Amino acid sequence: MKNKKLVIIGTGEIANNAYEYFTCDSEYEVAAFSVNKNYFNYNKFLDLPVVCLEEIEKHYSPDKYYAFVALGNGKLNHQRTILYNYIKLKGYKFASYISSHAFVWDNVQIGDNCFILQNNVLEPFVKIGDNVTLWSGNNIGHRSIIHDNCFISSQIVISGMCEIGKFSFMGVNSCTAENVKIAENNFIAMGACVNKNTKPNSMYTGNPAKNMNINTLEYFGVNLNNEME
């Protein structure tokens, strides 16, 4: 039964997927989409209204509608986070999508604006922060923590008792050994095997994973001064 109304922020491919998942496999009814005025080029998307983000509350009150920010990992998740914080300041509550085909143990904690797709396994005592994406087919080991604003792509194994720092990205088929801590703003490349703690703002690749000595904030053009807390 669709007993909650939802506005999706974005009109790109992630938003298209979010519409499909929320419509077919959730309690939310998608009512509209919203984009920044700089990207407002049409009034409809997927046969639903599109409104300017700057005026969203005039059309869809935060008292009656939930929001979901449907962006990918642009600028190491900082683009998505800026919009998440902007919508939060407007007073909206956030929806999280958790696939009915994911296995989530009953004591797992999951935050706001999360996107957890099919065939994910979340073992006991796992904690997922706010604004986290888990694409399909991952295994998150017992007592591991994924902090806010991360993007975990597909076929990834995060072993038990690990921590994934804020704003980190893990590429397809990457993995961690037990008790590993991945620092903030890390980019873990496709297929990388991380077997020891990493340094902040760093990029890792290979097996075993090695620090490429690339500052990820500079590489992805992240300006922390432009972000709203």
Task: Walk me through this protein's architecture.
- With 229 residues, the chain is α/β, with parallel strands linked by helices.
- The protein has 2 domains: 91 residues, 3-Layer(aba) Sandwich (Rossmann fold), CATH 3.40.50; 121 residues, UDP N-Acetylglucosamine Acyltransferase, domain 1, CATH 2.160.10.10.
- The protein is built from 4 helices and 25 strands.
- Strand 24 and strand 25 form a beta hairpin.
- The radius of gyration is 18 Å and the shape is globular.
- The mean pLDDT is 96.
SSE topology:
Layout: E1 4-9, H1 13-24, E2 28-35, E3 44-45, E4 48-52, H2 56-59, E5 65-69, H3 78-89, E6 93-94, E7 97-98, E8 103-104, E9 109-110, E10 115-116, E11 121-122, E12 127-128, E13 133-134, E14 139-140, E15 145-146, E16 151-152, E17 157-158, E18 163-164, E19 169-170, E20 175-176, E21 181-182, E22 187-188, E23 193-194, E24 203-205, E25 210-211, H4 216-219
Parallel strand pairs: 1-2, 1-5, 2-4, 5-6, 7-10, 8-11, 9-12, 10-13, 11-14, 12-15, 13-16, 14-17, 15-18, 16-19, 17-20, 18-21, 19-22, 20-23, 22-24
Antiparallel strand pairs: 3-4, 24-25
